[in-house]
Amino acid sequence: MSADSPREVGERIAARRRARRLTQTGLATASHVSYATVRAVERGARRPSDEVLEALAAALEVDATQLRTGYVGTERRVHQALPALSAVIAGYDIPQGPPTRGPAELAVAVDEVVDWRLGAQYGRIATEVPALLYDVIRYVHTVRAAGQQAAARMLVAAARAGDAVAFKYREHDLSARLIDLMRWAADRAADPLVQAAVAYVRTEIFFAARAHAVGLAALEQAIHAAPAPSSRSAAAARGALHMRAAVIAGRGGDVDGADTHLTHARQLGDQVAREGVYLGTTFGPDSVRIHEMSVAVSLGPNHVDRALRVATEWMPPASLPAERRSGFHIELARAQEWADLPGDAFESLKAARAAAPQHTREHPWAREVTSSLRRFHRADAESLSHLAHWIGAV
């Protein structure tokens, strides 16, 4: 347990709240924590539970470790939830009775975990998604034919939130099983846009196995099967697949393939015109720019100038989902470390942490860059050591 007293934690929360220009009522509303609890925590009259601390940290847009020293509750909660998540999907194709929640309540809950996924709130997802998947799987099996497509879409979205946790915490077997569930649900949805979204996520299996050539082939097959980009949602689905294909081509050292897919993604991003979330995947001109960085870094140190040029011309706006912004800064830090720009790399890692702390802490590249900086560069050593301890690079 942290050595911080309840009063110290409460004072930090109150200071962050005032810096965000929030009232206690506003913080309670944003965090879904009761007003009475916020008041008690800020006065130091109550030590916040892990769930309350993470909810307040998310609303204040800080990592929970900035409110309570040495906080490790997210990792503990995730690992405690993984067995339940594994168990609940074990027999997803076997009917097991009706859900405990109605369709409207399930839809609200699914939308909430999708928001958490885009914001890289893995602790919150891990707490809620096993019970949510239990209900949505049952709903898919019991819903009338007219509601089957909507129910299957909900199941894909809920399973994708669970997969975000499994994949980020390197539980790749569980991630692959969740993707199998998504593919099963997508077949029941009979919606080519849902199929495209699942193909996008399926690429995680190929990344984890470093099977870049077959992963690229799978994505190109999905692109050919995707609907013509005659609507914004169809263009976004196809564009997201091209973005993913560009990155996995880059990981495989296929420069021409990466550039070809980036060109298609850029054209479709221009067609979509504005950034948005389409069936759970963020796509638009800004997402394409982020993937330009991803491709440059995927191609390796010999392409570092290409990565740095992207950052010179453009930086992700605050309106983008937190996980996307964090990923950009982590990849930029990797390029800056390659280019012997340790100070810039450190600043990029801090920007990644500010955008999505849980994503940054679990990203292997963030850990690798931090470890390298700590070994070979001593500037701002105290702050760098603090980051290294936080990220687990020591």
Distance between termini? 20 Å
CATH architecture label name of the largest domain:
Alpha Horseshoe
Tally of individual domains: 4
Query: Describe the biggest sheet?
Result: 2 strands, antiparallel
Helix content estimate: over 70%
What can you see in these coordinates?
- The chain starts with 5 loop residues before the first helix and ends with a helix.
- It has four domains: 1-71, 434 Repressor (Amino-terminal Domain), CATH 1.10.260; 72-189; 191-314, Serine Threonine Protein Phosphatase 5, Tetratricopeptide repeat, CATH 1.25.40; 329-394, no CATH class.
- A two-stranded antiparallel sheet has the order 1-2.
- With 394 residues, it is mainly α.
- The chain has helices spanning 6-19, 24-31, 35-43, 50-60, 73-88, 103-118, 122-142, 148-168, 172-189, 192-209, 212-225, 232-251, 255-272, 285-298, 304-313, 322-338, 342-355, 357-362, 364-376, 381-391, and strands at residues 276-278, 281-283.
- The chain has 20 helices and two strands.
- Helix 9 packs antiparallel against helix 10 (192-209) and helix 16 (322-338) packs parallel to helix 19.
- It is globular and about 60 Å long.
- The model has no long low-confidence stretch (mean pLDDT 92).
- A hairpin with a 2-residue loop joins strand 1 (276-278) and strand 2.
